[in-house]
Amino acid sequence: MRKATSNENQAFDADVLVAGYGPSGATMAALLAKRGWRVVVVEQAAAIYDKPRAITADQEVLRIFQELGIADEVAAQAIPHPGTDYLGMDGQIIKRFYPAPPPDPLGWMPNFMFLQPELEAALRRAVERVGQVRTLLAHRVTHVAQDAQGVEARVQRLADEAAFTLKARYLVAADGASSTVRKQMQPIVEDLAFDEWWLIVDAWLRGPLDLPSRAVQYCRPSRPGTYMVGPGALRRWEIKMLPQETPQTFQDHDAVWRVLSEFVDTNGLEHCRTAVYRFHALVVEQWRQGRVFLAGDAAHQMPPFLGQGLCAGVRDAFNLAWKLDAVMRGQAADHLLDSYTDERKRHVRTVVEHAKTFGLIIGELNPEAARERDVRMVQELASGRAETVRQRFIPGLEAGLIARDAAGAPAPGAGALFVQPWVRQGGGAWQRLDDVLGSRWAILLLNGGGDAQEGPAWSDELDARWQALDGCRLRIAAPGTCEEEGLAVVEERDGLLAAWLNGCGAVAAVVRPDRYVYGAARSALELRCMVQALVEQVRAGQGDTRLDPANA
């Protein structure tokens, strides 16, 4: 870990102030602290909420947690998502989702079910292990002001309402759907026209019950609902409230248990949690205002029908953390931070639209429309036209920092998540690729990166510029191949990496610190041009001011 102790740095209470200590805020704090930056976290709650809330996430989340050293722990406490059946009006299967088949391209199970209190505890232990983070629980940010140098946040201690000011270079507001910081920013919010009340019931199995082994979407107009298989004895039902019902309808346990009995024999259940949620589809237009950024539910809200709410917030943190690190370290110009909104907003908006579509399928209340839906979807499933792998609804990057050709079209592979095979160096132990790369830019070359006769694939000048970005280069080669100066050699176990490059017709891939592909190059000359363009894109407009936490 690189320690941030420069005199210039000491003028601030922190390099980054994070409002909110849920999964998004905790991930942000851990990622920044791991890179050596001082972080202060302000959180209203005095402790982790001890009941299940988010219950499912995906392989990209585990890959991000891998960087924090907690992926194995989280995976051990979780179970693989069993897949989902959509049942029509007559109980027939109208749609199915299956887990993505192996091999797992990102190195982890495609989707998993978890208990949020356990996951949050693992994240906070990661924060504590890395140090550099001061946590203020039972506090809240009440007001934010900023200038060209930094941010001032007014913070209130909830126990006695005492107030004080904290100063930081940047502030990340991950303080939830009712974000105080977002309200002060007053950004434009796009409403994607989904607004429904749903009852959530979590229960523990305490007796023999004949329940489905897979998740179920009950697409029946009389009472739409969802059944989810949680880890251990946890089971969840999400039940759509009908037009004549209000949140007050379900204030007492008997009313909740009566509606739950429409889906399951409640005699074998022990109540865990009941909550009424108003599912929205909202995306903030601008996630950055100067030195203040929105993340997680403060920036977007989505229906839960793709299980992507927590995933989106963790992705926000990873996308922004490496960019803040690069800018504060002087490796990138400030404009790199603008790409945070460009990249994440479009990605999230697509996911929200998909989640909304599935919500409308499940929640249809008109019997005639539901009957037509069932006929159409059964035909799509039988014909093979229906997509049956849920993860394929999660897009790559379509905007921001990705390579483009002369016509403005994305380069091959640009914006995709790069694969993570098992690799080893010099006959050593097998490791996941990210553990070899570290949290930096990387070039992965296949068999040396192309025909040298097309022009030098590399030069001392370009190497110096690449290293200024903290970039590394790895070559995928056969066992026993010697390393070259500045070029490490790895052997891969399952052929994922070579297959990915060959699928793009490429000899090399340029991969960002968040493991999205900047672009894949089809020749040594194309690689050289791509890296030159990248360096200009990242560093253009850079001033003389730099802050490197390695400087003691």
Give a verbal description of the structure.
This protein is an alpha+beta fold and 552 residues long. Helix content is 29%, strand content 26%. The protein has 13 helices and 26 strands. The strands form 4 sheets. Strands 1, 2, 8, 9, 10, 11, 17 and 18 form an 8-stranded mixed β-sheet that branches. Strands 6-5-13-14-15-12-16-19 form an 8-stranded mixed β-sheet, sandwiched between helices. The protein has a 7-stranded mixed β-sheet with strand order 21-20-24-23-22-25-26, with helices on both faces. A hairpin with a 6-residue loop joins β20 and β21. The model is unreliable at 1-8, 450-455 and 542-552 (pLDDT under 50).
Summarize the structure.
The protein is an alpha+beta fold and 552 residues long. It has 13 helices and 26 strands. Strands 1, 2, 8, 9, 10, 11, 17 and 18 form an 8-stranded mixed sheet that branches.
Count of separate DSSP helical elements? 13
Structural class: alpha+beta
Q: What shape does the CA trace take?
A: globular
Indicate the radius of gyration in whole angstroms.
Answer: 25 Å
Number of separate strands: 26
What's the overall average pLDDT, rounded? 92
Largest sheet entry: 8 strands, mixed
Q: Flag low-confidence runs.
A: 1-8, 450-455, 542-552
Report how far apart the termini are: 13 Å
Strand content: 25-35%
Helix proportion of residues, in percent? 25-40%
Secondary structure: elements and pairs:
Blueprint: E1 14-19, H1 23-34, E2 39-43, E3 56-58, H2 59-68, H3 71-77, E4 79-80, E5 84-87, E6 93-97, E7 111-113, H4 116-130, E8 133-137, E9 139-146, E10 151-157, E11 163-173, H5 180-185, E12 189-205, E13 215-218, E14 225-229, E15 234-240, H6 253-260, E16 269-284, E17 288-289, E18 292-294, E19 300-301, H7 309-328, H8 338-362, H9 367-383, E20 422-424, E21 431-432, H10 433-437, E22 442-446, H11 460-468, E23 472-476, E24 488-492, H12 496-503, E25 508-511, E26 517-521, H13 524-539
Parallel strand pairs: 1-2, 1-11, 2-8, 5-13, 11-18, 22-23, 23-24
Antiparallel strand pairs: 3-7, 4-7, 5-6, 9-10, 10-11, 12-15, 12-16, 13-14, 14-15, 16-19, 17-18, 20-21, 20-24, 22-25, 25-26
Helix pairs in contact: 1-4, 1-7, 2-3
